[in-house]
Amino acid sequence: MSEKPAITASLLAEYCFASAPRRYRIIEMMQSDGFEPYKKWYGEVPGAYRRYMSTGRDDSALEYLEAALVKREYVTEEDENKILLQLDAIEHIRHIDHGGIDPSLRILPFDHPARSTEVAGVTIRVNPTNLVLGTRIGRREQFVGVLKPYLKKTHKLGKDEAAALITILHLFVERELSALGEPAIEQCFVAEVFFERLLAPPRSYKRRRELIEASCLEIAERWPSVRAKSGAERKGAATR
Predict the structure, then answer these.
(1) CA 108 from chain center: how many Å?
(2) Are strands 6-8 and 106-109 parallel, antiparallel or unpaired?
(3) ∠ CA(142), CA(146), CA(149), 5° rounding?
(4) What is the mean pLDDT of residues 105-130?
(5) Which residues contact 231 (CB under 8 A, 6 or more apart)?
(6) Which of 99, 138, 192, 224 has the highest local Cβ count within 10 Å?
(7) Cβ–Cβ under 8 Å, residues 208 and 202
(8) Given pLDDT bands bounded at 50, 70 and 90, which one contains residue 35?
(9) CA distance 166 to 189
(10) What percent of the chain has pLDDT over 70?
(11) Measured distance CA(47)–CA(66) in Å, rounded
């Protein structure tokens, strides 16, 4: 359990528009020792997507992982489900229309050491897979964005959640990657894998930034009390 407030970018986008009970549950999940869905359920899929996008969507990046998963042995039903979910994700990636990304932009593997940023005392885990670089006519500087797959099968992002998630990506670029060039929200993208769609950047983000900051302030305020209550419940369950 993290002593310091932390949340994934995807869950923060959901948190911004969630009901009070769902917000409480999200904080509980983030405090759980076993909460690591990105790696637990999707294994090497983000890495395969990273290579797929940085090679001009060369399918061999997906085929390599697909072949390895088919051959992989499993012992438990949970292990089998993880393999099947990854295979399902790979097939959905193939059907995403990435045409919304300007072909003049360069998509590179994300190898920068920064993986998170902080807002109002809350660590936001962003973990993009790709860097998106571009230039503009009449401008010398390089423009910078990032690309991230959204790997959740049971929750389709609403319009506001999608815009909030891309705004979080832009905030991350602005705070952590500004040395690489001018942050550009137009170059920040989310691929919603299981719904086979590329989410377009919003036209404006000022109010969403304010909502994200307010949500982080709320998380930071609630974090100690949720941790204390959850700890007391676990202790009580252990003694029953």
Answers:
(1) 17
(2) unpaired
(3) 160
(4) 95
(5) none
(6) 192
(7) yes
(8) low
(9) 6
(10) 90
(11) 12
- Cα gap 84→18, rounded to integer Å: 30
The DSSP string of 183-232 is E-GGG-EEEEGGGTEEEPPPS--HHHHHHHHHHHHHHHHHHHHHHHHHHH
Within 10 A of 192 (CB to CB), how many other CB atoms are there? 20
Read off the pLDDT of residues 137-180 as tens digits, 9 standing for 90 and up: 777 789 999 999 999 988 899 999 999 999 999 999 999 999 99
Tell me the CA end-to-end span of the chain in Å, nearest whole number. Answer: 22
What's the Cα-to-Cα distance from 188 to each of 172, 174, 218, rounded to whole Å?
10, 11, 26
Q: Is 12 helix (H, G, I), strand (E, B) or coil?
A: helix
- 98-125 core/surface letters (b: 16 or more CB in 10 A; e: else): eeebeeebebeebeeeeebbebbebbbb
* Alpha carbon distance 97, 118 (integer Å): 32
The model's pTM is 0.89
Neighbours of 176 (CB within 10 A): 19
Cβ atoms 166, 204 nearer than 8 A: no
CA distances from residue 191 to 99, 100, 128, 131, 170 in whole angstroms, order as listed: 12, 11, 11, 14, 15
pLDDT band at 53 (very low <50, low <70, confident <90, very high): very high
